[in-house]
Design a protein that fits this description.
Elements (H helix, E strand, L loop, with lengths): L3 H33 L6 H22 L2 H29 L7 H21 L1 H9 L15 E3 L13 H16 L6 E5 L6 H11 L42 E6 L5 H14 L11 H12 L3 E7 L19 H11 L5 E8 L12 E5 L7 H10 L7 H11 L3 H14 L22 H10 L8 H11 L5 E2 H8 L6 H7 L17 H16 L7 H4 L8 H14 L3 E3 L2 E3 L2 H14 L3 H17 L7 H17 L3 H13 L9 H5 L3 H9 L2 E3 L3 E2 L5 H17 L3 H17 L3 H17 L3 H18 L2 H17 L3 H18 L8 H23 L18 H13 L12 H24 L3 H21 L20 H20 L5 H14 L3 H17 L3 H15 L4 H18 L5 H11 L6
Parallel strand pairs: 1-3, 2-5, 2-6, 3-4, 4-5
Antiparallel strand pairs: 7-9, 8-9, 10-11
Length: 1074
């Protein structure tokens, strides 16, 4: 039941009684003054106090809307003021005779003011009442708090956590500053190498604020933030304002990143959490669409995101790239968050690597734990809480020297001393009696390696076996998984098989003639599943690790000991270890038993393919995750061919046919797919495992190149493409060599390496001619022509396009024109001159003689071809404007005619999204240029007879329709290497229609894509387009854009833009003649 009405009534009663209390007090004080008599010197002061009380009473009465109290208070106050007049006049005349004559008038003014105040109360009471009574406009309802989203967060240390008070305060200030809007750091990085306690620091900070359980809901805004918890009686905690409702996040999402997972799983989990759609299985492939989803679901929330262990998604190679994010989604997420477009929130990141993408930004602040070592008193407390209480000051300093103040090393030392030395530091050297050759690594790691070496002589055989087994997993491990590996009798394999999917029943014998109907159906179902594919089955012996089996009791005892020692962490139903501890025990096993790691990986491969994921072809990213782990372990076990065929190809991709590539086509999981492919490489991205067949090695190189290119990692994509070309040439596989050379040419073009693109394109033509494959001869000629076009050699490009079309007519007479990507490239050549002419026409510069107006039709194509042939022979990059606008308009019409026909073919046979989108883009460009060249009245497809649209709206409608289809189609196809082209065209259309903000938004998005992918040609296009569209608004910015465009054009040899850039420079710098 709501308590608001009663609360309001109590409040009104309280305030109303205050007015009458003032009246009673006024009467009491006035009565006291009267008892003194008029001659007593105290009386004036008492009556003055009564007058003040009366004015306060009037105020309360008006505030409480108590008319009677207001009248009584006003009359009483006026009466007391009249009583004060003689005293005031005597006082003033004695001391200030000059003003004694005006005193009565001053008193009259004072009384008049009081009377006016009373009249306002009387006659404007309703208006005042409406002002006072009207409740504040209801606040917009806050979104319902979401349950806490913890994925991979460790268990709490609670009162065993030591130090980091300064870091807690800085995190508190970051959150408070975000809430108040005073902080410019909505992203905080907790940065340090392994073992400094980054994760537990952030987890402890959340615990201090009351966020305990994964299934908990954040406190609602009415409850306020829970107060911090005292961790230790000797350490004080800052007390927040627990009653402030504005300091509460309504959503908290924690994600611990895991190797091999890729950012796809994170992106899906994040959107699923904020949309509260647990069934979500796929996101749009385009980054801007993904960000739009997040803006939709996060825009009105107050959130806290924790990205734990982000180094998994960062570049680890030394150099300028160190620390950069590999994932476009993560990069865009942090940019959108910093710009405030995802609601109000704080992002906390833990990482071993610097956040290079954020460094230098005023929206980012870093806490470097390596520069903030634990102090001596904190180390004493850590040792005490871990059970080490006996040590001298000298021994303490010795332990500090051994540990280097590294928190994980100190905790490991404490665990060993508490377990094996009775909690005393005395005689600690007994564990360090061997000369330790620490492996290469960070100095803090070397401290840890030295201490972990102590365990070699301390752990018993069972404990060592458990540690080395767990160390080869990449994720927290369940007890039943260990049972399969170490305690086969506890694994209940037979029961698992009885309850597994029918694929496991393939060994059921054929029933005899006396079998029941149920037995026959069971056998038939097994045969069907066997024919369509099934997960493998393994005997307990095939799953068990070499060596004597353990008992269940021995396994549990070993696990308890290792948890007590601090080498393992138990989280609910799983066991995990720190990454550095895992690395030590992996290295230890490899040193003692060369075959040991492969034996473990072989069993883990079988475990993941048969037990952890028994479904042959599971759905969704979560279903595929065990299979991705199986690919990793299979490759580590040397089972490359089996892993590729049985797991990656058949179960993850589901083949490569029309229904294949499930993980990328259906789920859009390009990053997870690329991480899986990397397992087959010895040296990313060139050396594919020699254990694979030659065709499979070539195929994997192509897959790696495709995945890297799809993710915008273009420079990395060149490695597998180049390796694939070398392999094909070595094998004299000229068709695949032509494919690789053509792909390299297009990749070089995207990266702005035009000279290399021309060279690779020429090699592609050579290899294709050697192969004799007609289709490759056509495709490589268009790739080479495209490179020549961008280099400014339009005549040579046109000749190659024509030769390619001749080949097309020979191969497919029913489709006599270049189509798909080849047709798009040819259309781009045809529209090159029209694009330049359209802008010149739009600024009214150098109107060519014989300009065609709105009512004039374009000349016949034959005339245009003659004109075009002349200017190409003359070596001009673009049509001479003395020839009129006939040629560029004719080119628009020709491009339109070709794209209209190829679009019809594409839609008829159901080709790829990319092909359809590129046709729409050609139609949009041709329509835009033609409309501009014709004064705005012509259209990509001229209005038909009977068209009810006005002439001036028909072209815009046609262009808009094609542009929408182009942009959306390219987004859906996930082709970031073509999307900027459509955004540039749409920016031009929007600018023409007066939508400057929309045009600038398109240019900004295109720039983001080009900048992420190091696409120098697109960057030059964007700068040139921005200058041409907005030079009237900001000439200084336009000049700077043209200066930068000039640098890029000359750097990349992008001579296609020479004429357009020269035109823009003349207009912007004011040197042209109208």
């Amino acid at each position: 039941m709501s308590t608001e009405p009663s609360t309001r009534q109590n409040t009104e009663a309280s305030t109303s009684s205050s007015a009458w209390t003032m009246i009673v007090l006024l009467v009491a004080v006035a009565t006291l003054g009267a008892t003194f008599g008029s001659d007593h010197p105290v009386a004036p002061f008492v009556f003055s106090g009564a007058a003040i009380i009366g004015l306060i009473g009037v105020w309360f009465a008006v505030k409480d809307k108590d008319r009677l109290a207001a009248i009584v208070s006003a009359i009483a106050t006026i009466g007391i003021v009249f009583l004060l007049i003689p005293w005031i006049q005597d006082f003033v005349s004695t001391r200030y005779p000059l003003i004694s004559n005006i005193l009565p008038w001053a008193i009259v003014v004072l009384l008049g003011a009081v009377l006016v105040f009373v009249l306002i109360v009387f006659f404007l009471r309703k208006r005042l009442s409406s002002t006072i009574d009207s409740p504040a406009p209801p606040a917009e309802p806050s979104p319902t708090p979401l349950p806490l989203g913890f994925h991979g967060a460790p268990e709490l240390l609670e009162k065993k956590f030591v130090g980091r008070e300064q870091e807690f305060r800085e995190l508190d200030r970051a959150w408070d500053g975000m809430v108040s809007g005073e902080s410019s750091h909505p992203t905080v990085g907790v940065i340090a190498w392994g073992g400094f306690g980054k994760t537990v620091l952030v987890r402890q900070w959340l615990w201090r604020w009351g966020f305990d359980r994964p299934d908990q809901t954040p406190p609602s805004s009415r409850q306020g933030m829970p107060g911090p918890r005292a961790r230790d009686g000797n350490i004080s905690m800052p007390e927040p304002n627990a009653g402030d409702s504005n300091d509460t996040p309504d959503a908290l999402f924690w994600r611990s990143f895991q190797e091999g997972e890729g950012a796809d799983a994170f992106a899906l989990a994040l959107v699923s959490y904020f949309s509260q759609d647990p069934q979500l299985e796929k996101l749009p492939p385009d980054s801007s669409q993904q960000m739009a989803l997040l803006r939709q679901f996060m825009g009105d929330r107050r959130y806290l995101l924790v990205l734990d262990g982000l180094e998994v998604e960062q570049i680890k190679t030394r150099g300028d790239e160190l620390g950069k994010l590999k994932s476009h989604f993560l990069r865009d997420l942090l940019r959108e968050h910093a710009a405030g477009r995802l609601g109000t929130g704080l992002v906390v990141i833990t990482s071993r690597l610097p956040l290079t993408d954020l460094a230098g930004e005023n929206t980012y602040g870093a806490l470097d734990l390596e520069r903030r070592p634990l102090k001596d008193h904190e180390i004493r407390l850590l040792l005490k809480l871990e059970g080490v209480a006996q040590y001298s000051e000298a021994e303490l300093q010795e332990l500090i020297g051994v540990s280097g103040r590294h928190p994980l090393t100190l905790a490991t030392i404490a665990g060993i001393l508490e377990t094996y030395n009775g909690g005393s530091a005395t005689g600690w050297q007994q564990f360090d009696n061997e000369i330790f050759p620490p492996p290469e690594g960070d100095q803090n790691e070397r401290h840890l390696w030295r201490v972990l070496a102590w365990t070699d002589g301390l752990l018993n055989a069972a404990e060592k076996r458990v540690m080395t087994t767990l160390a080869h997993f990449r994720e927290p491990v369940k007890l039943q998984w260990l049972n399969h590996l170490l305690v086969p009798e506890a694994a209940n394999v037979a029961g698992a098989l009885r309850g597994e999917p029918p694929a496991k029943q393939e060994a059921v014998p054929e029933p005899d003639e006396n079998a029941s109907v149920e037995e026959r159906l069971k056998w038939l179902l097994g045969q069907f599943e066997s024919a369509s594919g099934s997960a493998p089955t393994y005997t307990p012996e095939e799953l068990r690790l070499p060596g004597s089996p353990m008992t269940g009791q021995a396994l549990r005892r070993a696990l308890e000991a290792l948890v007590g020692l601090g080498l393992l962490r138990r989280d609910t139903d799983t066991y995990a270890m720190h990454g550095l501890v895992r690395e030590h025990f992996r290295r230890q096993l490899a040193r003692e038993n060369q075959d040991g790691p492969m034996e473990i990986h072989t069993r883990l491969y079988r475990l993941y393919t048969a037990i952890i994921q028994p479904v042959w072809r599971p759905d969704g990213l979560e279903g595929l995750r065990p299979l991705y782990e199986a690919v990793y372990h299979g490759a580590q076990a040397g089972l490359h061919q089996e892993t590729l065929d049985d797991v990656y190809f058949n179960r993850i991709l589901r083949g490569t046919g029309p229904d294949g590539f499930y993980n990328t086509h259906e789920l859009g999981a390009f990053e997870a797919d690329l991480a899986a492919v990397a397992n087959f490489f010895g040296q990313p991205w060139r050396g594919v495992s020699p254990k694979l067949s030659a065709p499979d090695r070539a195929w994997l190189l192509n897959e790696a190149a495709f995945g890297l290119r799809a993710l915008g990692r273009l420079r990395e994509a060149r490695e597998p493409m180049g390796a694939g070309l070398e392999m094909a040439v070595e094998q004299e596989d000229w068709k695949n060599a032509a494919i690789s050379a053509g792909n390299l040419s297009q990749l070089a073009l995207t990266l702005g390496e035009i000279e290399r693109a021309v060279q690779d394109g020429e090699r592609g033509v050579e290899f294709a001619d050697r192969s004799g494959d007609g289709f490759m001869r056509e495709v490589t000629r268009t790739a080479h022509a495209d490179a020549l076009h961008q280099a400014g050699d339009r005549a040579a490009a046109r000749a190659l396009f024509q030769a390619a079309e001749d080949i097309q007519q020979e191969m497919q007479p029913e489709y006599p024109r270049l189509y798909s990507l080849q047709g798009f490239r040819y259309a781009d050549l045809l529209l090159g001159g029209a694009e330049r002419a359209a802008w010149r026409e739009s600024v009214g510069w150098i109107r060519p003689p014989g300009r065609i107006h709105q009512e004039t039709k374009a000349p016949e194509a034959g005339i245009a071809e003659v004109v075009e042939e002349r200017w190409m022979r003359a070596g001009s990059a673009y049509p001479p404007y003395g020839s009129g606008a006939q040629a560029p308009i004719a080119d628009c019409d020709r491009a339109t005619e070709r794209a209209t026909q190829t679009l019809e073919w594409a839609e008829r046979v159901g080709v790829s999204l990319l092909d359809i989108a590129l046709n729409h883009l050609t139609l949009a460009r041709a329509g835009l240029y033609r409309a501009l060249l014709s004064g705005g009245g012509s259209c990509a497809v001229p209005p038909k007879a009977g068209d009810t649209q006005p002439l001036d709206t028909a072209p815009q409608t046609a262009v808009d329709t094609h542009l929408t289809a182009a942009v959306e189609g390219l987004r859906e196809a996930g082709r970031s290497d073509y999307l900027p082209r459509s955004l540039l065209t749409r920016a031009w259309v929007r600018a023409v229609m007066g939508d400057s903000s929309g045009a600038r938004s398109d240019l900004a998005e295109a720039w983001k894509i080009a900048d992420n992918g190091s696409m120098g040609l697109f960057q030059a296009d964007i700068l040139l387009t921005r200058a041409r569209l907005f030079f009237r608004e900001d000439k200084e910015q336009a000049r700077e854009d043209l200066r930068r465009a000039r640098v890029l054009v000359e750097k990349h040899g992008y001579h296609r833009r020479d004429g357009e850039l020269a035109d823009a420079e003349e207009v912007v710098h004011g040197r042209h003649r109208k």
